[in-house]
Amino acid sequence: MLTIGPLEPTDRDGWQRLFAGYNEFYGRTMPPEFFDQAWTRFRRAEEVHALGARLDGQLVGIAHFLTHASTTAPDSCYLQDLFTAPEARGKGAARALIAAVTDWAKERGCGRVYWSTHESNATARRLYDQVAENRGFILYQIPL
């Protein structure tokens, strides 16, 4: 059985394994203090938020998200990180996490939920093309 809900204090180790897997997928390694900082923020649930997907009680997926003001619409919800354990893929966890974030954002009056992914992430894009609209924007960034 698949369930979606807030991360609990006992989820810390499982969450960190999943978040490390997410970062490894994108070729990043994070120092331990980044994990500590993110976990502390999620526990406060003020600036950034997190949900977990559990399959038969086991944490198999995570979603990290935040809201921000918009100049052209109601506030927006940015789905910053989404990751499902390899052994749980294809079982609906990512789809359910996206739906839960969308419900969360609707309850708070947000006008949209959006996210980005690498163009080469074909597996995720197959799902994303089913649940959202690709509006064709290209992401630019300036590392500081």
Automatic annotation (TrEMBL):
One of its GO terms (molecular function) is acyltransferase activity, transferring groups other than amino-acyl groups. Keywords: Acyltransferase, Transferase. It comes from the Bacteria. CDD domains: NAT_SF. Residues 2-144 form the N-acetyltransferase domain. The keyword Transferase applies. The keyword Nucleus does not apply. This is GNAT family N-acetyltransferase.
